[in-house]
Amino acid sequence: MLTVNEIFHSIQGESRRAGEPCVFVRLTACDLRCSWCDTPYAFHEGKKRSIDDVIAEVERFECPLVEITGGEPLLQEDVYPLMEQLLARGFTVMIETGGHRPISRVPGDVLKIVDVKCPGSGEAHRNHWETLDVIGSRDEVKFVIKDREDYEYARDVVARYGLSGKAGAILFSPVHGVLDARELSEWVLADRLAVRLQLQLHKFIWSPETRGV
Length: 213
Ligand code: SF4
Description:
Helices cover 26% and strands 24% of the residues. The protein is α/β, with parallel strands linked by helices. Helix 2 links the parallel strand 4 and strand 5. The longest helix is centred in the C-terminal third of the chain and has 13 residues. It is globular, with a radius of gyration of 16 Å. The structure holds iron/sulfur cluster. The site of iron/sulfur cluster (SF4) has 11 residues, from loops.
């Protein structure tokens, strides 16, 4: 069984698949409390559902791309068979997980987006650095950046772990409504960083507070 916060069909707002239709499976619970978290409703709200029930709802959207997110999706043991069964049915499966959780049990065919927490989140001390040693070209590493201190932290992590040479993408995402995307862009350009500026598309298409998009 899984505790599921919501399942919805929307436009993928982030990652290299940004702009594509995608089904999101948001699992309940998180063991972090990022200062800028935009899904605190996923901390506790949710219903117990079987894997078969979750897959049946995903299939109703007739969409080949599925992202499992949270909360922190790797907290629930049944997320592993869910990923396996979605892959077996031919879906392209993505998972977004915090940089504090080991990813070694995530199936190799799942596209992993690992969120490294910057100081502004209040959770940087929880980063599990060994995860960055096993990042591959199918994976993406994401930094949510609140201010200049976060930017410099992210820039240093990218260099220290050689992420430009091994990750499929390095995403620098400004905290929506807090850090101006233009300012972040100018820092990236000035430092000649090989990273991808990421805006959360769904917050521009719908209002930032809209749930289920
Ligand atoms: S890891 Fe994600 S869900 Fe958990 S507190 Fe941070 S932003 Fe929110």
